[in-house]
Amino acid sequence: MLESTYFFCPTCNIERKFHRDGVNHVLHLVLGILTGGLWLVSWLALTIGHYYEPWTCNSCERTHQRPTAVKK
Description:
four-stranded antiparallel β-sheet, 2 helices
């Protein structure tokens, strides 16, 4: 699952599309059900950790930890 959004890329110096891998919530829900809820702790940790993953610019392929908002 791939997430994408638009941010201002400081390398390209223009608004660009960024992407990063997403969390497969359906898989984690199934694992949570199959393990009787034990997997829910891991799912929560993965979801919180995903927030800190870097975004990658589709044009220059450089990663940015927290791209800035779109400049207008």
